[in-house]
Design goal:
- The protein has 302 residues and is α/β, with parallel strands linked by helices.
- The protein has a single domain, classed as TIM Barrel, CATH 3.20.20.150.
- Helix content is 40%, strand content 16%.
- Helix 3 packs parallel to helix 4 (125-146) and helix 7 (205-211) runs parallel beside helix 9 (254-263).
């Protein structure tokens, strides 16, 4: 396994500075964010370290030069919009940009693009599948033709009462993963597996790893702390009682997590995703978060 980080946490750094940071902090790879320039509508969105709309041959060569110069690999390209949004025009733009990210990955000689399936949170799960069928098979065919795996992150994207009860991402549990994979032939569609999203859903993480072993194409390392006082006050149907934390500061059983990954012979990237607000006061704090996370995870990923 290779230890990396998600570049969304350092939006103010240039592409070269991201590679340099990864090298200086002892990482092996980075997941590069590829949002359309200026398209920020939530925290950690809208970060553009690789502008796929302007990726010409000179820029492709520049990326390869940075990889060679720093020794840092690219674990995946990342773009996490809502491709099943109810807004048809926005959906078209998002799907179109995701296609460009897939093509950029092909041109760079990469193997994985990470994203969300999306969801119209005002509709039932059952009502989503026809929309899924109208969007995702074509994207999967494009990725398959390009030799790219698509890693679906399973975050429920449920943050406020306005999104209750669905959130803005459809495949959040094993039952929905099975349905998703059954609707798309082949093995192009996979999981960008993040244990933090399963903690607060009380889903058995090692069991999920073992069941979906063949579908895990990328891994995020993020922890989740359950605030027991808030949970007592609000119950599981409330919000705000589970809090993203750095690896080792939450409820994930990291030895069991990595035991399961080694059981399935996973040898790919494990990328730290910093979304811990306690470490977001400054760039120095976020660099400290990456350093602290690496030191913790190195006991499992040498």
């Amino acid at each position: 396994m290779q230890l990396g980080f998600v570049s969304a946490i350092v939006p103010e750094l240039s592409l070269e500075e991201v590679f340099t940071l990864a090298r200086d902090e002892g990482y092996a790879c980075v997941e590069l964010m590829c949002w359309p320039v200026g398209a920020a509508d939530r925290r950690y969105a809208g970060v553009t370290h690789l502008d796929v709309n302007r990726l010409d041959e000179a820029q492709v060569a520049r990326v390869h030069e940075l990889v060679a110069k720093t020794g840092i690999g690219i674990s995946a390209l990342g773009y996490y919009p809502n491709p099943l949004t109810a807004d048809a025009e926005q959906r078209k733009l998002m799907v179109g940009h995701l296609g460009k990210v897939i093509e950029a990955a092909r041109r760079l000689g990469l193997g994985v693009v990470n994203t969300f399936i999306g969801r119209d949170h005002t509709q039932s799960v059952e009502a989503q599948w026809p929309v899924f069928d109208s969007v995702w098979p074509d994207l999967v065919r494009q990725a398959a033709a390009a030799g790219i795996k698509i890693g679906i992150e399973h975050c429920p994207m449920l943050f406020s009462k306005d999104e209750w009860p669905g959130g803005k991402n459809l495949p959040v549990s094993p039952a929905l993963w099975r349905e998703m994979f059954a609707r798309v032939p082949g093995d192009t569609l996979g999981l960008n597996f993040d244990p933090s999203h399963l903690v607060w859903q009380f889903i058995d993480i090692p069991r999920a790893i073992r069941e979906f072993a063949s579908r895990i194409v990328h891994v995020h390392a993020k922890d989740e702390r359950i605030d027991r006082d808030r949970l007592y006050e609000r119950g599981i149907l409330g919000l705000g009682w589970h809090i993203p934390k750095l690896p080792g500061l939450g409820e994930v059983d990291w030895p069991a997590f990595f035991a399961a990954l080694t059981d399935i012979r996973y040898t790919g990237p494990v990328c730290v995703e910093v979304e811990d607000r306690a470490y977001e006061g400054s760039l120095a704090d976020r660099k400290r978060a990456l350093r602290q996370s690496r030191r913790f995870l190195e006991q499992f990923v040498g």
